[in-house]
Amino acid sequence: MACRIESGSAPDLSIADQQLTVLKQDSNTMRHIEDCTCRRIDYLSESLRFAWQELQDRQTVKSKPD
Questions:
Q1: What backbone torsions phi and psi does residue 8 show, to the nearest 5 degrees?
Q2: How far is residue 60 CA from its own chain's centroid?
Q3: pLDDT (tens digit, 0 to 9) for every residue of the chain, 66 residues total?
């Protein structure tokens, strides 16, 4: 939204303040989403590492002679 400034009138800063507030809220929301996504990726990575290690352990047990 562009603010039009008419000659001789003061700009309406309340609109700019409202837009700034919305941008700050959007930024905080995006930061929160990013944090949650990073935590989820870390969790999934750890789960995958655990599953891979368990699979390797099972393969090792199967390949050992009795």
A1: 85, -5
A2: 38
A3: 555 555 566 667 888 888 899 999 999 999 999 999 999 999 999 999 999 999 999 988 887 766
DSSP 3-state of 18? helix
C-alpha span between 18 and 25 (Å, rounded): 11
Q: Which tokens go with 55?
A: 């699979």
Asked if residues 14 and 6 have their Cβ atoms less than 8 Å apart, the reply is: no
- Rounded distance between C-alpha atoms, residue 32 and residue 43, angstroms: 17
Rounded to the nearest 5°, which phi and psi values hold at 18?
Answer: -65, -45
What's the angle, vertex CA 32, arms to CA 27 and CA 34, rounded to 5? 95
Q: Give the closest residue to 43 by CA, choosing from 54, 35, 55.
A: 35
